[in-house]
Amino acid sequence: MNNSQFDAGSINEIKPGKTKRVDAANGKRMLVCNVDGEFYAVDDRCTHEDSSLYLGCLKGERIHCSLHGGEFSVKTGAALAEPAEIALQTYPVRIEDGRILISC
Question: Can you give the pTM of this predicted structure?
Fold first, then answer.
């Protein structure tokens, strides 16, 4: 498996309870989420209807899809509310010198 890592920005850019959409070098669009000071990265596209999750809202660890109401855990990727049934892809995140680094 060929992993690469990219810098998704400063931890100061994403306040707790907020998200940021980022484009990885490989063309993947991801959503970085701040859950009480912990950062998580998931695919930006809902697995139900391919809608951007950036348009939804983050409550706790749950990201809500604005299109049909599906919900996912940003910690595990698990689908938590119908109509979503397929988990989101998650990506390892680490913080280094105040920067959010994502492996993909």
Answer: 0.91
